[in-house]
From TrEMBL:
Subunit comment: NDH-1 is composed of 14 different subunits. Subunits NuoA, H, J, K, L, M, N constitute the membrane sector of the complex.
Mode of membrane association: Multi-pass membrane protein
Function: NDH-1 shuttles electrons from NADH, via FMN and iron-sulfur (Fe-S) centers, to quinones in the respiratory chain. The immediate electron acceptor for the enzyme in this species is believed to be ubiquinone. Couples the redox reaction to proton translocation (for every two electrons transferred, four hydrogen ions are translocated across the cytoplasmic membrane), and thus conserves the redox energy in a proton gradient.
Matches recorded under Gene3D superfamilies: NADH:ubiquinone/plastoquinone oxidoreductase, chain 3
Keywords: Cell membrane, Membrane, NAD, Oxidoreductase, Quinone, Translocase, Transmembrane, Transmembrane helix, Transport, Ubiquinone
Catalytic activity as recorded in UniProt: a quinone + NADH + 5 H(+)(in) = a quinol + NAD(+) + 4 H(+)(out)
Enzyme kind, highest EC tier: translocase
Annotated PANTHER family: NADH-UBIQUINONE OXIDOREDUCTASE CHAIN 3
Protein name: NADH-quinone oxidoreductase subunit A
Gene Ontology MF, one: NADH dehydrogenase (quinone) (non-electrogenic) activity
Family, as annotated: Belongs to the complex I subunit 3 family.
Principal subcellular localization: membrane
Alphabetized Pfam families for the sequence: Oxidored_q4 (PF00507)
Length: 124
């Protein structure tokens, strides 16, 4: 037979978390309804990001090249994020750290060359 009393603190924690998250989500919605800020109108529902109405269906598919450029941006942004701590700790890591980073940069260079050859960087 299993002693279920060990799970009581976890259940209490889950109940408190559920109650707090419900209050955080539902309280602002209730206050907005009571104070009258929930009055949708044509002006409130109009486009506000770019200033002009959308010219095509928002559910249309993006070109695959858009995603390729986004992935390449993330990869090279992460490269920059890894280079700064590596440069700061290079004295501690020594030759092993230097060699590891050169392998990492080599892999990224091969990936960039592959993407360049496949035309992922060409935009029409």
């Amino acid at each position: 037979m299993t002693d279920l009393s060990q799970y009581l603190p976890i259940l209490i924690f889950l109940a408190v978390a559920l109650a707090l998250s419900s209050v955080i989500v539902l309280l602002p919605m209730g206050v907005a309804r009571l104070t009258g800020t929930h009055n949708p109108s044509a002006d409130k529902n109009s486009e506000y990001e770019c200033g002009f109405p959308a010219f095509e269906d928002p559910r249309s598919q993006f070109d695959v090249r858009f995603y390729l450029v986004a992935i390449l941006f993330i990869v090279f942004d992460l490269e920059a994020a890894f280079l700064f701590p590596w440069a700061v700790s290079l004295k501690l890591t020594g030759w092993a750290g230097w060699l590891t980073m050169m392998v990492f940069l080599g892999e990224l260079a091969i990936g960039l060359a592959y993407a360049w050859k496949k035309g992922a960087l060409d935009w029409e």
